[in-house]
Amino acid sequence: MNKQSFERSHVRQIRIHVMPTDRFKTFSISLFAGTPLREQTVTPTALLPFVLRRGTKRYPLTKQFRERLDDLYGAGFGFDIYKRGDYQMVQFKMDTIHQDYVHAEKDDLLRASLTFLGEVLCSPVIENDILKTQYVQSEKNTLTKRIESIINDKIRYAAERCVEEMCKDEPYRLHPLGQIERIPEIDAESLTSHYHSWLNEAVMDLYVVGNTTMEEVTKIVEEAFPLSRSSSPGYESHSHNVQAKDVQTVVERLDVTQGKLNLGLRSKIRYADQDYPAALMYNGVLGAYPHSKLFINVREKESLAYYAASRYDGHKGIITIQSGIEIENYEKALRIIQKQLDSMKNGEITDLELAQTKAMIRNQLLELNDSAFEMIGYDFNGVLSGVHRDTDAFIEMIEQIDRGKVQQAAEQVELDTVYFLRNEKEVLADADKNV
């Protein structure tokens, strides 16, 4: 079977990526709009998609907006807001069935869907030359509640606070949903001004996977996205490179019954680097999977943690460790976690750990081909980093990783921050530092 890949073009500073395929019964559409993380813009940028999804010039009422999706045979529409490296990403997604499967030969559902997305982006509801005040005020409340939900979820809260402390002098400290204290100062007029700036400056990548052609998609985009944009330079291939210094320990006290012990580590290896497969293996052996060292040694053998895992942001070069522990077990849990980090640097990695980690990563890469949106996400990582890796070639790279290469990756990792969220009562001698 011929392997399918993305074809590339551009229209009005929008980069177009199309995978023509008849494997799926739907058209999967993603529009990525990326801007640098900045304190003055992160909150209004996060608010924009909430407002834009309320209505368009043609469908100004939210009810009409949703009815139009129903007219498109129940097309799915949504958005995500997240960060990749030092960039804030807004991703709009649509999933529309191909007209051949709904006996709608006269309806061009790809054209209708891209036109709808173009209206969401370029033709929002405007009243008195500004975004509709009612929608702005309503969605400010929605965004506030979304951020509050993170604060109320102490696992997510501890993860964000660890990163915030670790990267206090870097854009990466900012949460992609913005700062809750900055929401009240936004009004319809200021958000409208920001909308026009964002529309002009954001790096935009439009993906379409389905039974179509680059020629067809390009022609539709030219009509459906009436943008006049200045030159978009694309993404820098590297994030700010900050070296770990003396380990800082931060303790925060809240009304909690379970402690959250999080560690932030810096890796010199990024997504675009040749050693990235080894760094991915390092994270897999350390804490990404149920067979990993953190899960087995901290949670299973010692029964010290309710959960223990690690995550690796290859675009930033940061690894974070999350664990939930009894507060009195802080010192012991920290000691055992650090022991796992030391064992990785010493090359104490079993053949079974290597084999299981390779199998997990291989399965994840193979499963990408089962989902159009997963393929889009994987390809976009290549766009962000400037390095595209064919999945088959990447699997082969993973298979070639041995213990020595994982150990070398471990030597590129340094502990930066220890963050502990605990209750407000008893005092822990070794934990009460740098509060």
Automatic annotation (TrEMBL):
Supply the gene name. Answer: yfmF
Identification of the protein by name: EF-P 5-aminopentanol modification-associated protein YfmF
Domain Peptidase M16 C-terminal, chain residue ranges per copy: 186-359
One Pfam annotation, family name? Peptidase_M16_C
Q: Which InterPro entries match?
A: Metalloenz_LuxS/M16, MPP/UQCRC_Complex, Peptidase_M16_C
